[in-house]
């Protein structure tokens, strides 16, 4: 690719969503959508439950609902782009409020569907989803049917939804408010103190200077300690509400719902964690090798994301970043390289570093246009180049899905990071092989990559172990602050073993980790480890089989919203993810990277 076509920092083009924000096209679009939703709700309300006589009318409602959801997502995706790229503009958060209200209206039709499906028997339902217009979205419909089996009466479900606003969701909001306002006082080496917002805590703990990291860790935890009773009350109430609802919905185990959302079975989760426990020395060894390079035996929990103290390389230009990603993709996966080129040429990427942009990166897409947009801020680091590859991987997944019906394009969190990690890996292989990247940079890249691995295999496993132990005990009553601390310390010691220094635990991690307080979902942890290990397996197969593997890879991505994860992987890869050996192989594949790390570090010292 010639650099001249892509050298300026990129500002994306959003006209394919709407010509202008809240211009006549967009206003008409919204009015039509909201009118259609009202009409559809009225129609669904007066429908009898699903039976052969009502099947044709329900089909019509479902097709209209699928289409309305797609239009709402188009609008929402557009506003996500604007909110991120123009963070100071107040019009976009206002628009977000209207989107949320429209989504709530659409969700009321979902309640009617659940009600209508609840009385349908297996045979009748099977006949219904075999109708030609519904067959391509059969899996999505089967999931609604499955949800209906675990629902209370419509009146009770409506009451629960209303009460949740001032109950479980209010606890989540309280936590967000309190934690958002939290400050900590950092004492620097020269004796000066500085008050910092908690939003800077994590990056300060990951400082290359471990003394700053430790000072930040201790100061931050004093702040968390000051709100420990409120955090404990919120955590107890959030879990308590869930356990009550599970009981009334006849869910037998607290993992049933998170597993359903993740699209996997219990035995798959158990197989994965059995393998993680069996191979736990591998990520622990990485931390020990890293500690040894710093003249120590192990690390403290707070520094698990801190990089090796190596000098940052020269900043890269955008055109050089584009060339690195483009070449790495095109060399081994030409179709991915071509899609990347198309994204650049069509203005689908926003990378300019300027004021009033939100931090972070994401990929969003519209099922209406079949197009994707990547958002990021390019500051010239190798990490930014990796982000570009990662988000382009998401975009490629979205592109492959665009041939499917809207409701068959919704994949679970367990498959959400497959394509992004795969693309990241292709870039990394390209960079490791490149003579243009020096050893210091290679070391920093691999260190970051493996630190991520250790977070996914150790930190996330700690969170899962803690949350499981907490839910187990919460069934018998509320837990005290000291019990939360005990459970958290025990989970860290058990998972990290000797790679964690004595006294290196973080007893307040249950309070400081936002993920435990998300009111909409529990166990926001295991899908990360799952997705990472699955992606690593695909990478290993690609290494072995080369480009011949790519049609299978693409089949997996294309089917990611059409079946259970077990079935999707079995059909595309001929692999059984309920077997422990599948996961063991995925983890053992990491020994290659660990060996490379050891070698790069010993060359350095
Ligand atoms: Zn991602």
Question: Please, could you describe this protein's structure?
Answer:
By secondary structure, the chain is mostly helical. The protein is 63% helix and 4% strand. It is built from 25 helices and five strands. The chain has helices spanning 24-45, 55-85, 91-118, 122-129, 138-149, 154-166, 168-181, 201-205, 210-226, 228-248, 256-262, 266-278, 281-293, 318-332, 334-345, 382-401, 418-433, 439-474, 481-496, 509-512, 526-545, 550-558, 565-573, 580-588, 591-604; strands at residues 183-187, 193-197, 349-350, 362-366, 371-375. The strands form two sheets. Strands 3-5-4 form a three-stranded mixed β-sheet, sandwiched between helices. Strand 1 (183-187) and strand 2 (193-197) form a beta hairpin. Helix 12 (266-278) packs across helix 24 (580-588) and helix 21 packs across helix 24. The longest helix has 36 residues, at 439-474. The protein is globular, with a radius of gyration of 25 Å. The two termini are 38 Å apart. The model is unreliable at 1-6 (pLDDT under 50). The structure holds zinc ion.
Describe the SSE topology.
Layout (H helix, E strand, L loop, with lengths): L23 H22 L9 H31 L5 H28 L3 H8 L8 H12 L4 H13 L1 H14 L1 E5 L5 E5 L3 H5 L4 H17 L1 H21 L7 H7 L3 H13 L2 H13 L24 H15 L1 H12 L3 E2 L11 E5 L4 E5 L6 H20 L16 H16 L5 H36 L6 H16 L12 H4 L13 H20 L4 H9 L6 H9 L6 H9 L2 H14 L1
Parallel strand pairs: 3-5
Antiparallel strand pairs: 1-2, 4-5
The structure holds zinc ion.
């Amino acid at each position: 690719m010639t650099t001249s076509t892509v050298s300026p920092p990129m500002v994306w083009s959003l006209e394919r969503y709407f010509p202008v924000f809240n211009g006549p096209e967009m206003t008409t679009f919204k009015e039509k959508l909201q009118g259609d939703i009202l009409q559809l709700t009225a129609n669904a309300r007066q429908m009898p439950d699903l039976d052969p006589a009502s099947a044709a009318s329900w089909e019509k409602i479902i097709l209209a609902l699928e289409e309305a959801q797609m239009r709402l997502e188009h609008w929402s995706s557009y506003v996500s782009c604007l909110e991120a790229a123009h963070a100071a503009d107040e019009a976009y958060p206002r628009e977000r409020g209207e989107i949320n209200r429209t989504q709530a209206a659409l969700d009321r039709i979902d309640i009617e569907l659940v009600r209508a499906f609840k009385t349908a028997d297996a045979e009748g339902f099977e006949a219904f989803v075999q109708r030609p217009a519904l067959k391509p979205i059969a899996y999505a419909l089967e999931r609604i049917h499955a949800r209906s089996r675990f629902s209370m009466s419509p009146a009770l479900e409506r009451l629960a939804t209303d009460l949740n606003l001032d109950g479980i969701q209010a606890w989540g909001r309280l936590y967000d408010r309190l934690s958002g306002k939290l400050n900590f006082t950092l004492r620097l080496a020269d004796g000066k103190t500085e008050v910092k917002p908690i939003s800077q805590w994590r990056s300060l703990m990951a400082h290359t200077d471990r003394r700053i990291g430790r000072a930040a860790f201790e100061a931050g935890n004093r702040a968390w300690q000051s709100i420990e009773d409120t955090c404990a009350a919120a955590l107890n109430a959030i879990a308590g509400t869930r356990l009550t609802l599970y009981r009334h919905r006849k869910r037998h185990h607290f993992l049933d719902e998170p597993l359903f959302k993740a699209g996997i079975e219990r035995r798959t989760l158990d197989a994965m964690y059995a393998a993680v426990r069996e191979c736990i020395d591998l990520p622990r060894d990485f931390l020990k090798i890293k500690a040894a390079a710093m003249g120590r035996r192990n690390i403290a929990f707070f520094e698990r994301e801190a990089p090796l103290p190596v000098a940052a390389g020269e900043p890269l230009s955008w055109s050089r970043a584009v060339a690195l990603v483009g070449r790495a993709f095109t060399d081994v996966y030409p179709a991915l390289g071509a899609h990347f080129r198309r994204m650049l040429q069509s203005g689908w990427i926003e990378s300019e570093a300027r004021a009033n942009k939100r931090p972070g990166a994401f990929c969003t897409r519209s099922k209406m246009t079949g197009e994707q947009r990547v958002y990021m801020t390019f500051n010239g680091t190798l990490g930014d180049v990796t982000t570009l590859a990662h988000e382009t991987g998401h975009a490629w997944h979205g592109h492959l899905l665009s041939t499917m019906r809207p409701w068959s394009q919704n994949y679970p969190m367990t498959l959400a990071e497959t394509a992004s990690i795969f693309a990241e890996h292709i870039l990394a292989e390209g960079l490791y092989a490149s003579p243009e990247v020096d050893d210091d940079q290679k070391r920093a890249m691999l260190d970051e990559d493996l630190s991520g691995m250790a977070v996914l295999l150790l930190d996330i496993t700690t969170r899962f172990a803690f949350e499981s132990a907490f839910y187990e005990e919460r069934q018998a009553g509320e837990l005290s602050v000291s019990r939360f601390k005990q459970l958290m310390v025990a989970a860290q010691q058990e998972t990290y073993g000797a790679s964690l220094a004595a006294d290196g635990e973080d007893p307040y991690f249950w309070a400081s980790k936002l993920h435990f307080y998300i009111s909409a979902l529990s166990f926001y942890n295991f899908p990360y480890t799952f997705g990472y290990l699955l992606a690593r397996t695909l990478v290993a197969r690609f290494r072995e089989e080369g480009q011949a593997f790519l049609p299978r890879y693409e089949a997996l991505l294309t089917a990611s919203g059409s079946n259970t994860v077990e079935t999707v992987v079995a059909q595309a890869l001929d692999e059984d993810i309920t077997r422990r050996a599948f996961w063991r192989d995925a983890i053992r594949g990491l020994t290659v990277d660990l060996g490379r790390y050891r070698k790069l570090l010993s060359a350095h010292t």
